[in-house]
Design goal:
The complex is a heterodimer of chains A (107) and B (135). With 107 residues, chain A is an all-alpha fold. Chain A has helices at 6-25, 38-65, 71-103. In chain A, 9% of the residues are buried. Chain B has helices spanning 2-29, 99-132; strands at residues 46-54, 61-70, 76-79, 91-94. The longest helix of chain B has 34 residues, at 99-132. Classes of the chains: A mainly alpha (107), B alpha+beta (135). Chain A binds chain B through residues 70, 72, 75-76, 79-80, 83, 86-87, 90-91, 93-94, and chain B through 4, 7-8, 11, 14-15, 18, 120, 124, 127-128, 131-132, 134-135.
Chain lengths: 107, 135
Amino acid sequence: MSIGALDASKAYGRAASIGNTLSKAAGGGEIGDDQQSGFGAMVENLVGGTADKLRSAEAASAKQVAGKGDLIDVVTAIGAAETALDTMVAVRDRVVGAYTDIMRMQI
Amino acid sequence: MDLDASLGVSASGLRAQSLRMRTIAENLANQDSVADTPGGNPYRRKVVSFQAAVDRANGGTGVKVKSIQNDQSDFVKVYQPGHPAADAQGYVLRPNVNGLIETADMKAAQRSYEANLNAIEAAKSLTMRTIDLLK
């Protein structure tokens, strides 16, 4: 079995094309940016939802501090925001971990 | 998610029980509120009734206060001829509030509130432990 000099570049090309399809699926590729789908959209939804919940929790706390709010509203809003943030952070950590695992992979 | 819905349901329980607690506080605070005109009616005890209510936002069946109604039982008659509210026979009508009943009711409201708090705590810790599976 002979190891050609071109084999390495071929492997690199294959890896690059796999990377391309992956990033296209993530919605971050240079081609097909108009169709927001897959991982990118999911993260966007997650972050957007979390931000919304954090904002409503903040509004509820501000109302409570001003003496016009309901303590139960504050508790539920902050609970929902906390859960959403924790979910988002856990998913992000998981994905970043997967990414670094791929980066460390032997070629 | 159903655990979110159960948080909402428990929150509705907290709200309903706090309104019940408020009504009990009103009854206790007014157990000496009598009229200031002869033969006038004193404070009438209030009773809260609850009702199941579906929350459209999360689909859970929570609870809400259906109505706060007056207790129609008779007022207590006390002989106090010198009182401004005394009628021609010298009797004053006192509120139909019984401190013992209110105290027992308050304990029930307190227990129910605590049960809802515990349900919230349990649902929250289950959610957190589920998220921890990702970590």
